[in-house]
Write a structure and sequence with these properties.
The chain is 50% helix and 12% strand. It contains 4 helices and 5 strands; from the N terminus they run E-E-E-E-H-E-H-H-H.
């Protein structure tokens, strides 16, 4: 079988990356190869193609048969078109200078088209980003409105429940305050009535005269001094005295408010009848 120009797969699952190789047609896809002439990454837009142009022209003119995907890659890079122009030069249909001029013109047009597609693709990406951002903004605004409505409903419910709970407490507080005021008024009224009754019952209280300070005991009557009775001398031949004059009794002293202790007077001994001196008349 002739030599093939084909792709050799590399990369992970879902992230394929290809090598452009020259291999025997009987070799497996990812098996032994003769030469590697480039790489192909289809995941980027546009696809990233790195190709050795001269080696690709050499193998194509030598007779290597490209696969369908590699043929599209070679056509995209201008390898097949230049090979066609060189065949015309060998046949004498045109000169080498004309072939080079046509190839350069085609390459400029191709590059301008590629650049236009790249710009178009970038604009499309920007538009997609703007649309996606607008959609996300709209969704976020809608979500914010929904949350605001939800929070408003919840706050209204909480306010209503708190009002229901606070209303009995406020009524109880008002009743307690009114009862306290009534109780205070009643106590004040009772106190006034009791004071009036007490004043009416007692009447006017006379003013008490101020008492001057008393030196020791001012109000107590002075106690008269007791005269000591002299001893009776025995006189012989004197008639007996029938009666002895009684000693005057000491008047009772009125108890003062504050009376100092009174010293008890010693008892006067009675004189014996036979020893009493005669009293002169």
């Amino acid at each position: 079988m002739p030599t093939r120009i084909r792709l050799q797969r590399h990369g992970r699952k879902g992230g394929a990356f290809y090598h452009i190789v020259i291999a025997d047609g009987r070799a497996p896809r990812d098996g032994r190869f003769i030469e590697k002439i480039g790489t192909y990454n289809p995941l980027t837009k546009p696809a990233n193609i790195d190709l050795d142009f001269d080696r690709a022209m050499h193998w194509l003119q030598t007779g290597a048969q490209p696969s369908d995907t590699v043929r599209a890659i070679l056509s995209y890079k201008g390898v097949i078109y230049k090979s066609h122009l060189l065949k015309g030069v060998t046949k004498g249909a045109l000169t080498l200078e004309q072939a080079e001029e046509k190839y350069n013109n085609w390459l400029e047009e191709k590059q301008s088209k590629v650049l236009g597609k790249i710009k178009e693709h970038s604009l499309v990406q920007k538009e997609e980003v703007k649309k996606r951002m607008a959609a996300e903004t709209k969704v976020s605004e809608q979500r914010a409105d929904d949350l605001a409505k939800k929070y408003a409903k919840e706050s209204a419910k909480k306010a209503a429940s708190s009002a229901r709970h606070q209303q009995p407490a406020a009524v109880v507080a008002e009743v307690a305050e009114v009862a306290e005021v009534a109780e205070v008024a009643e106590v004040a009224e009772v106190a006034e009535v009791a004071e009036v009754a007490e004043v009416a019952e007692v009447g006017e209280v006379p003013e008490v005269a101020e008492v001057d300070e008393v030196d020791e005991v001012a109000e107590v009557a002075e106690i008269p001094e007791v005269v000591e009775i002299p001893e009776v001398v025995e006189i012989p031949g004197v008639a007996e005295v029938t009666e002895v004059e009684e000693v005057e009794e000491i008047p009772e002293v009125a108890e003062p408010t504050e009376i100092p202790e009174v010293v008890e007077l010693p008892e006067v001994p009675e004189a014996p009848e036979d020893k009493v001196a005669p009293v002169s008349e």
